[in-house]
Each structure stands twice: as structure tokens, then as C-alpha cells.
Amino acid sequence: MLTFPDGFLWGAATAAHQVEGNNTTSNWWTMEHAPGSPMVEPSGDAADHLHRYPEDMGLLAAAGLNSYRFSVEWARIEPERGFISRAMLDHYRRMIDTALGLGLDPTVTLMHFTVPQWFQKDGFWRASDAVDLFARYVETVLPILDDVTYVCTINEPNIAAMLAGGEDAANLVAYGLPDPDLAVADTLLDAHHRASEILHSRSGIQAGWTIATQAFHSTGEPGADEMLAEYGDPRDHWYLEQSAGDDFVGVQAYTRTFIGPEGPRPVSPDVETTLTGWEFFPEALEMGVRSAWERSGGVPVLVTENGIATGDDTRRIAYTQGALEGLHRAIADGIEVRGYQHWSALDNYEWASGYRPTFGLIGFDRETFARSPKPSLAWLGEVATRNGL
Questions:
Q1: Rounded to two decimals, what is the model's pTM?
Q2: Which of 119, 284, 365, 367 has its CA 20 to 30 A from that of 183?
Q3: Which residues contact 130 (CB under 8 A, 6 or more apart)?
Q4: Which H or E element spans position 380?
Q5: How much is the pLDDT for 236?
Q6: How far is CA 349 from CA 53, 169, 304, in A?
């Protein structure tokens, strides 16, 4: 058996906007309902996780998992500039308490792409006071984070900077990523540092951000290696390097992209692909973890997302098996990995792609919200219970 370290966290992850439903004060809700929106459909009720989180966490715990990553929604906590919803702060504290009561270590993300509508309207991450406003929000959330060890400040700042720089929200981690807004990248780094300082005022909290690692592959043609560095540095590598000194770095790995001398190549037509059009490539996780460890100078790794969009749950299990085998190889080579959180706990709203790409260990009925745990949840729970493959 391939055994994992003592105390290893085995879990699953969600993001507030993708599962809660009716996040009407967020910037994404505005984009979903704008005339000519590129979104396939609006998020609507999503999975109604806002009300059904005890059931969802209960399913994870009953399967044998011991960790749950979720995000708190800035747009709910501060729906208007300067107005704080005490009820929503209490809601997220109840989520933390529910997780702890079920034996699930709560990993809390403070910003998972979405921001309040007023923040976007007042200049977004380009505003001169953007970092101060985010810091104020972190200070507001801090009192509910007692008993939380891992706090992710910003989810995938590399993707956030690319979304700020490009117009295509539909292709978040695949071929042909938009050019990042480097000024937004710098602002997000400043916001991460400010947030980490605030979080460290509470003993016991470990702070980091999460990076979408891309597993860029050179084709080996003349000029391809140089293009890989030119293309990959501002989209991936720089963020891992900036993680140096953090308590941990979150790795979020799904697939790979080949880079030729001209830039990224489309996915080959002769490989297996997922519902998002990405190559089925479980080795992406091992590559992402190794890259994070090396580029950060040995910062401990927490796998905060890894999974595939598929309607065939046997392929989800096969992908996860392969990813975990690679993760074990990285650990055996001395890389410190604290845990593995599968994306996603629930089928959910996949941003511009709508509800068609199903990443979840748990399905749900869009009409009744009835939950349907998949065999992959039981499989991952057995891995967690054994702490090994």
C-alpha cells in the first residue's frame, strides 16, 4: 500500500458562488445577467449549499473524509460598501462549527474569484484603495476564524489577473489563456501580503494563496523552451516564486498545455478529453506540486483542487488514482504535502460554462436539490480511511 503521512488531510472543496445560490450582490451575478453575457446560463439557485451545507458536509464526513475547503463570500458579508452583514458572518461561523463538529478540518478561502458589485464598480483591483478595502474585509472576517488552521487568502490570483487582462472568462485553465494584467497581479500580491499579516495576528492560523499550476510542456522544437518561460512565467511560475515565505502554498492542478515556439498548442485530437475540453492527464498534479515546492523554495504544499469534469465516474476514480500515485511519488522524494482536497465536493456552477461540466463527488437534482453521492466519493473516503492507496 502507498501510505500517506500521519495527519494527512483528505477532503473536497467548493467555492461559495458556485454552490450557494442567489449571490445577487456579487460582480459575477451582474455579468451573468448582463445583455449579451458570455455566460452559458446564470448561477441562479446553484446547489443551494447556502442552506444545505450541513447535509453536504455530513456526506463528506460519513464517507471518511476529514477535511473540507470552502469560501466565505465577500459580497454577502459586505453587500454595500462599508455595510457589514452580521448575519452572514454568523452563517459562515456556523459552517466552521459544523465542519469541526463532523470531524472535518475547515480550510477557509477568503476570495474565490468573486467580489462585491460595489468593489468592481469602484475600480476593481485597479483602484488605488483596493488593497486597503480587501484588508478591511479580512479584518472583518478574522473574528470568526478561531479554530481554523488553513486560510487561503486569494484563490488562483494568476487566473484572476488573466481574467482582468483578457475578455474570455470561458477558458479558465486551458489552451490559449488571456494575457494577464500585470498591474492587477502586483495588487493581488500586495493584498495577499496584507491579508497574511492580519491573519497572523491570530495564533494558529496558517496563511497562503492557491495557484492554478498549468503543467506547461515544451514540444522540444527550437525556441519552444524560451517560449515556455515567456508564456509560463507571468501565468504560473511567478506566483509560485512569490509564495516563498508563506505558511503553505495551495496547488490546483487539472491538465497540461504543450508550448511550441509560437506559443500554446490546442489539445491534440487523439487524446482523451474531459467535459471542459482538457486533456485527461493525472500527472498534472505531481508536476504542479513539484513546481510549487521548487519555485517557492520549499514551502509546504496543500493540494486545494484536483479533479476532472466527466459524466463517467469510473474515469473520475481512475484520474484521481493516477493523481494520488503521482502525489505519493512527490512525497516520497521529500516534498512536504499537508493534504489533498478534491475538486469538487458537489457538481456546481462552472462559471461561463454553466452546469454542464460535472466535477462533483456528489451530484444533485436541479429541481429538488436532492443529493446523489457518486461511487467516487465512497472510493475517496476509503482511501482517506486507510490513509493510503
A1: 0.97
A2: 284
A3: 119, 123, 124, 187, 191
A4: helix 375-386
A5: 96
A6: 16, 13, 18
Residue 219 near residue 141, CB atoms below 8 Å: no
Q: Is a pLDDT exceeding 60 seen at residue 169?
A: no
Strands, E, within 43-188: which ranges?
A: 67-71, 105-109, 150-155
Q: Would you say 357 and 275 are in contact if contact means Cβ atoms under 8 Å apart?
A: yes
- pLDDT for residue 164: 85
**Residue 277 zone, left/alpha/beta (φ > 0; ψ -120 to 50; rest):** left
> 352-388 b/e with 16+ CB inside 10 Å = b?
bbebebbbbbbbbeeeebebebbebbebbbebbeebe
Is 125:184 a contact under the CB 8 Å cutoff?
Answer: yes
Positions annotated as catalytic residues are 156, 305
Q: What's the chain's length in residues? A: 389
How far, in Å, CA of 147 to CA of 18, rounded? Answer: 25
**162 or 188, greater pLDDT:** 188
Coil, strand or helix at 304: strand
| pLDDT band for position 167 (cuts 50, 70, 90) | low
The CA distances from residue 304 to 15, 111, 258, in Å, are 11, 14, 24
Beta strands at 150-155 and 105-109: parallel, antiparallel or unpaired: parallel
